[in-house]
Structures are given as structure tokens and as C-alpha cells.
């Protein structure tokens, strides 16, 4: 074999290394080219009259732009730049946001049936949901969802909502809450825990059959687990809504949420088992008894949504989101009265004139209290605790404004843009109860007032929430003046975005009147 001279050998090695390097570079470039081609095919060219939006990045879509800002800032910037119907992408998923009263009214008016179905959220299977146990809140528009929503509405009515019986219990709970406020003797305290437990007790009464003492060990446990679950879902909301079930196999904080849910489920199952032992099929005490009776009736029907896993999910939704939405509104109400003592004084004057200082407020008083009612409405509008609907799916190609929303596209409504629409409200960005009053001081119904969402998925507990807000709010102001201590910093009205929009935790004094 011929021996290659040293200089030639060195040259041969250099050429070989160059060729190998070139091959590796070529492979990388080929992989990149194929990946971009795959991304292009997956993304596809949008159809004619598709809503405008920011240019998506390969693979990521607009996720990185979303992560750079708070969601509310991101969505406001999209609306400002592209208009009331705007599109963006998470990965390869097209999402459309509807904003402004005019567009939202069009979509949820004559075309509402095109936007009824929910997008499936596969990752929620980590939180006990399955084909026959979807609950109500994030369920697809199936027979099971219709069955469960009908059950919730009828159960709320059967167990007193809209009747004197539940109103009486709300008044009793208001007295317990005011007693707790009174025990503070005018000193500084954070009202969050007390408000949460007062509202939570009304749902416990309906769902579990009785209220709890605020210091009851089981009550503290269920409230703590509920708050932990809501916090966990809020921190991982994008994953739970937009990522597939495959994400459940990847390590991450969403697994801690699952652990919290498992602890919550175990506790709820204990309550359900206790109900099984003590219930009378002929006389249901609460929603849990009523659901267990429906399970008995549904035996042998594999298509029924009445099963124990679904009862756990339903109780989770009621004691979680049901409590949190009303409690968050109440916390905003207390803060608004501290920040606007002149408005607080007007409410108290109306309470004194209509109800007095000794009689408990009832819903019969509300028609005679336009200013107080306007203030409560304004708290709901200005606090804007649920700024966006849970996403749904267009069931067929639908024209909205001058755009076409293709079938199967994910859509959600920007409720915040309706509650703060500058073409509708006189002072949309200020706390201004006169938004709901005419020149004579009488209450005005506003079509753009949508605090309980809109469409077929609107809150089924709206009537209960209205009663709680009016009775709790008026009872507190009947007996106390809310304020911050002298020479202390004024509480901020900045917002904390979680499952609901909350005020920054604050402390206050409740001075007996």
C-alpha cells in the first residue's frame, strides 16, 4: 500500500473534516427547511375575510408575544391595533377574539346558536373530567352538559333560590358576617377570609345542606383546598385551556394542581359517602342528595351524566368558581367604598331612609333603592372580575362584522371591552354609579351590562349572586362605615389576575355606626 506523504495526508484530513462539517451543516439546514415547510403546511394560508392579527412565528405562533405581557394588556393591544374582531395563534391553533358591544351583540344575538359549543380542553382530564363527567363550566355542548345545566338550574330553584327561604338564610349569614366585623372593634383587618366564608356558606347550604361556623375545621379545610385549586389552575390556565392531553406526561407545575385536586376529591368523596348513609330518598336535603337520587334513577343507562365523578366535578365548580366570583365582587365592593367615601355616605343615607338601622335588608327593599343598586351594578362593571368568556367553537362559517369566522375556529368574547366600551358608557374607566341612573336618579337598565357572561353558557347562579351581593353589601353598610386608618397609605385599586380579577389584598377598619 502506497504511503501518503505527510503534507498530502494533512491536506486529506482537512478536506475530510471540511466535508464532514459541510454534511452536518447541510443536514441542519435540511432539517430546518423541512421544519419550516411542515410549519407552513400546518399553518396554511388564512381564508378570505379572515380577521387580521399579528404575524405568527414558526411553531410558536403568538405565544411569545402573549407571554411578554399580562393577558389583559396583550388583548387590549390587539383590539387597539386590529379592531373588534382580531385573530392570533397559539402554536398552530387559530383563535379569534370578539370585542366591543356592537360586535358582541351581533355574535350573541341572532347568530348565537353558531357559538354554543365549547372547545374540548383535554388537559382538564387531570382534574377529574372525562366523557361522562365534564361538569358544567368547561363542558362541551353535549347531552351531558344540557342534562347537568338543567339539573343545576332546577336544583337552585328547588333549594330556595328566588324564594324567601334562601333569602332568609342569606340574611342570617349577613348577621354572622356583621358580627365578625363587629368583633374587630374598629381595628385594622383583611376582610378576604370573612367574605369568602360568608359567601361559601351559602353554597354549602345549597350543595351540602348546612352552613359551617367560620372556625369549623372541615369548613376551613374545604375553603383552603378550593382556594389552592383555583390558584393552581389560574397559574397554569393557558396549559389547561390550549394544550393537549399529551402535556400531562410532561413534568411541570400542573402536576401540583392535580395533587391538590386529588386531596379535594378525597375530601368531597367523604362528604358524599356521609350523605349516602344519612339521606332520605323521599326528602332530599340539598343538591348532593338530589344528585345521588338522579344517580339511582340513571342506573343501567350508560349514556347518563349522573355519576359520582361528575358530582365531584360539579361540587368543585360550585364551591370553587361559584364562591369566588361572588366573593371577589364583594371584596371589590368594600374597597370601592373605602376609596369613595362620598358614594359610601350616599348609600348609607338611602339605607337609613328605606330600611332603617334595625330591620334586615331584603330583596323587597331593592326596587326602592335605585342609588344602592346602581352602586352594586357599578362595582360589577368597574371591577370586571371575569373579563373574558371561556373559549367556544364556531359551529359553522359565520360572518361577524366584515369578517368570516371559519367553522371549528376557537372564539372567545372580550367581556371587559363591553363593560368598558367608550361608545356606551359615559365614564367607562371611572367608578361612576351614574352610569346606571337617569337624570331623575332612577335606575336604568343597560344592554351592555354583562357581569354574568352572555349566551347559553351564562352563569346559572345569577339570581343567587344578585341576592347575596345586595343583602351582604347593604347589611355591612347599614351597620358600619368602612375606611382606612388615618395617616395610612390609601389602598390601591390595581388588579390581580387569576381565575377572577381580584383587588390587591387590603386592610380596612369597620367603624360601627
Automatic annotation (TrEMBL):
Report the protein name in the record.
Uncharacterized protein
Q: Where does heme bind?
A: 459
The source organism is Anolis carolinensis
SUPFAM superfamilies noted in UniProt: Cytochrome P450
Give the transmembrane ranges. 18-38
A Pfam family (short name) is p450
**What cofactors are annotated for this protein?**
heme
Database matches in InterPro entries: Cyt_P450 (IPR001128), Cyt_P450_CS (IPR017972), Cyt_P450_E_grp-I (IPR002401), Cyt_P450_E_grp-I_CYP2D-like (IPR008069), Cyt_P450_sf (IPR036396), Cytochrome_P450_fam2 (IPR050182)
Q: Report the subcellular localization.
A: Membrane
Known Gene3D superfamilies for this protein? Cytochrome P450
**Keyword flag Membrane:** yes
Similarity remark? Belongs to the cytochrome P450 family.
Instruction: Could you list this entry's UniProt keywords, alphabetically sorted.
Output: Heme, Iron, Membrane, Metal-binding, Monooxygenase, Oxidoreductase, Transmembrane, Transmembrane helix
Organism lineage string = Eukaryota, Metazoa, Chordata, Craniata, Vertebrata
GO CC, sorted alphabetically, is:
cytoplasm; membrane
Q: From the UniProt record, give one GO term of the biological process aspect.
A: xenobiotic metabolic process
State the source organism's domain of life.
Eukaryota
Amino acid at each position: 500500500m502506497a504511503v501518503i506523504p505527510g503534507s498530502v495526508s494533512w491536506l486529506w484530513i482537512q478536506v475530510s473534516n471540511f466535508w464532514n462539517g459541510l454534511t452536518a451543516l447541510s443536514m441542519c439546514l435540511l432539517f430546518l427547511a423541512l421544519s419550516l415547510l411542515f410549519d407552513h403546511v400546518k399553518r396554511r394560508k388564512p381564508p378570505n375575510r379572515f380577521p387580521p392579527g399579528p404575524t405568527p412565528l414558526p411553531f410558536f405562533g403568538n405565544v411569545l408575544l402573549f407571554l411578554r405581557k399580562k393577558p389583559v394588556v396583550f388583548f387590549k393591544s390587539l383590539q387597539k391595533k386590529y379592531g373588534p374582531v382580531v385573530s392570533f395563534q397559539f402554536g398552530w391553533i387559530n383563535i379569534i377574539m370578539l370585542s366591543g358591544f356592537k360586535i358582541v351583540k351581533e355574535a350573541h344575538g341572532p347568530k348565537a346558536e353558531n357559538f354554543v359549543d365549547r372547545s374540548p380542553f383535554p388537559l382538564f382530564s387531570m382534574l377529574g373530567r372525562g366523557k361522562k363527567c365534564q361538569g358544567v363550566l368547561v363542558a362541551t355542548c353535549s347531552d351531558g352538559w344540557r342534562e347537568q345545566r338543567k339539573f343545576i338550574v332546577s336544583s337552585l330553584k328547588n333549594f330556595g333560590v328566588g324564594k324567601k327561604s334562601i333569602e332568609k338564610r342569606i340574611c342570617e349569614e349577613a348577621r354572622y358576617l356583621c358580627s365578625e366585623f363587629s368583633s374587630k372593634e374598629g381595628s385594622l383587618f383583611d376582610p378576604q377570609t370573612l367574605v369568602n366564608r360568608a359567601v361559601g356558606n351559602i353554597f354549602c347550604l345549597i350543595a351540602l345542606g348546612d352552613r359551617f361556623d367560620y372556625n369549623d375545621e372541615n369548613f376551613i379545610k374545604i375553603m383552603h383546598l378550593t382556594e389552592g385549586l383555583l390558584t393552581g389552575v389560574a397559574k397554569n390556565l393557558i396549559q389547561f385551556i390550549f394544550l393537549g392531553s399529551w402535556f400531562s406526561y410532561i413534568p411541570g407545575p400542573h402536576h401540583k394542581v392535580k395533587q391538590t385536586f386529588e386531596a379535594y376529591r378525597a375530601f368531597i368523596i367523604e362528604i358524599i359517602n356521609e350523605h349516602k348513609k344519612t339521606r332520605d330518598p323521599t326528602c332530599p336535603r340539598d343538591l348532593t342528595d338530589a344528585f345521588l337520587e338522579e344517580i339511582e334513577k340513571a342506573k343501567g343507562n350508560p349514556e347518563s351524566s349522573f355519576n359520582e365523578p361528575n358530582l365531584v366535578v360539579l361540587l368543585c365548580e360550585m364551591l370553587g368558581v361559584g364562591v369566588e366570583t361572588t366573593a371577589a365582587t364583594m371584596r371589590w365592593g368594600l374597597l370601592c367604598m373605602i376609596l369613595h367615601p362620598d358614594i359610601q355616605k350616599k348609600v348609607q343615607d338611602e339605607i337609613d331612609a328605606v330600611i332603617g338601622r334595625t330591620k334586615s335588608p331584603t330583596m323587597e327593599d331593592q326596587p326602592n333603592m335605585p342609588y344602592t343598586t346602581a352602586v352594586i351594578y357599578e362595582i360589577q362593571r368597574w371591577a370586571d372580575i371575569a373579563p373574558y368568556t371561556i373559549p367556544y367553537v364556531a359551529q359553522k362559517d359565520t360572518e361577524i362584522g366584515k369578517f368570516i369566522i371559519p367553522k371549528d375556529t376557537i372564539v372567545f368574547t372580550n367581556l371587559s371591552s363591553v363593560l368598558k366600551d367608550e361608545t356606551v358608557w359615559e365614564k367607562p374607566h371611572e367608578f361612576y354609579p351614574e352610569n346606571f341612573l337617569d337624570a331623575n336618579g332612577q335606575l336604568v337598565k343597560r344592554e351592555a351590562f354583562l357581569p354574568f357572561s352572555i349566551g347559553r353558557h351564562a352563569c346559572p347562579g345569577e339570581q343567587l349572586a344578585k341576592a347575596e351581593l345586595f343583602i351582604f353589601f347593604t347589611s355591612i353598610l347599614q351597620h358600619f362605615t368602612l375606611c382606612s386608618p388615618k395617616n395610612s397609605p390609601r389602598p390601591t385599586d390595581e388588579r390581580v389576575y387569576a381565575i377572577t380579577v381580584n383587588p390587591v389584598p387590603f386592610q380596612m377598619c369597620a367603624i360601627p355606626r
